[in-house]
Structure formats: structure tokens, C-alpha cells
Design brief:
- It contains 4 helices and 5 strands.
- It is an alpha+beta fold.
- The chain has a single domain, classed as Molybdopterin cofactor biosynthesis C (MoaC) domain (Alpha-Beta Plaits).
- Helix 2 packs antiparallel against helix 4.
Length: 144
């Protein structure tokens, strides 16, 4: 791991996004709450929060840091038959929370796949990206 001991603690925030695309019947079942496993959106939000908290266990060189806030939102895009997953993570620490935000999105997307796979094995998890981050020595970043 990189030594961050000499860095000052600063307020840090990161936002990441991913997309889960599926077929018409799976998307309609998810959107109307008719999946056999239950409320996929609630499960995805919880899976995302848990994934953010587990980041140092999943990403070998990630620092364990105290997260102050993790918010995961799932928005339905009927036209594209996608669930857009957005995670925002914040803390005051010596290192950033980009990995936690990205891991939250990945965990939520995987939960959505698991919840709907019985109706569609062709589900696609797409475009997991960092949208923005603030804080730290490198300064702010915003995806173009």
C-alpha cells in the first residue's frame, strides 16, 4: 500500500455510475416489483453500501478508511431497459474514496444481475465509471 501517513486529512467525495441493461420481460418484472427474489432495487442499494464498506477486502491495495456517508441510487431508464446505478461516498481521510464509490456501483450492479438472471441470462453490466471526485492533493476531477 502507498504510505499516506504524511498526507493531511481532507474532506473527500467520489461519485461513480454504472448501468445494467436487460431484456424487456426482465426489465418489466424488475420495474413492477414482480421478480421472484423480491425488491431488486432495495437489494441493490443495500449491496452497494455493503460493497463500499468491504472495499479493502476486495481491492488488495486499498486502504481501510472510515466512511462517513455512502448513498446508492438506482434509477430506471425504460427506453434503454437499463437500471442506472449511482453511488456517492464521502469521508474525511488521508486517501480518496474513488475505489469505494466504484465498488459500491459494481456490488449493486451484480445484485441486480443476480435478482433478474432467472428471466434473462444476457443481462449486461456496462460503463462503470468515476464521474467525479473532490478533495486530496490531486484536486477535483469531473468526467468530461
Amino acid at each position: 500500500m502507498v504510505d499516506v501517513g504524511g498526507k493531511p486529512q481532507t474532506r473527500r467525495r467520489a461519485i461513480a455510475r454504472g448501468r445494467v441493461r436487460m431484456g424487456k420481460s426482465a426489465f418489466e418484472a424488475l420495474a413492477t416489483g414482480r421478480l421472484s427474489k423480491g425488491d431488486a432495487l432495495a437489494v441493490a442499494r443495500l449491496a452497494g453500501v455493503l460493497a463500499a464498506k468491504k472495499t479493502p477486502e476486495l481491492v488488495p491495495l486499498a486502504h481501510p478508511i472510515g466512511l462517513e456517508s455512502v448513498a446508492v441510487e438506482c434509477t430506471l431508464d425504460s427506453r434503454a431497459r437499463e437500471v442506472v446505478v449511482t453511488a456517492e461516498v464521502s469521508t474525511s481521510a488521508r486517501t480518496g474514496v474513488e475505489m469505494e464509490a466504484l465498488t459500491a456501483v459494481a456490488g449493486a450492479c451484480l445484485a441486480l444481475y443476480d435478482m433478474a438472471k432467472s428471466l434473462d441470462r444476457g443481462i449486461e453490466i456496462r460503463e462503470i465509471v468515476l464521474l467525479q471526485k473532490t478533495g486530496g492533493r490531486s484536486g477535483p476531477y469531473r468526467r468530461g
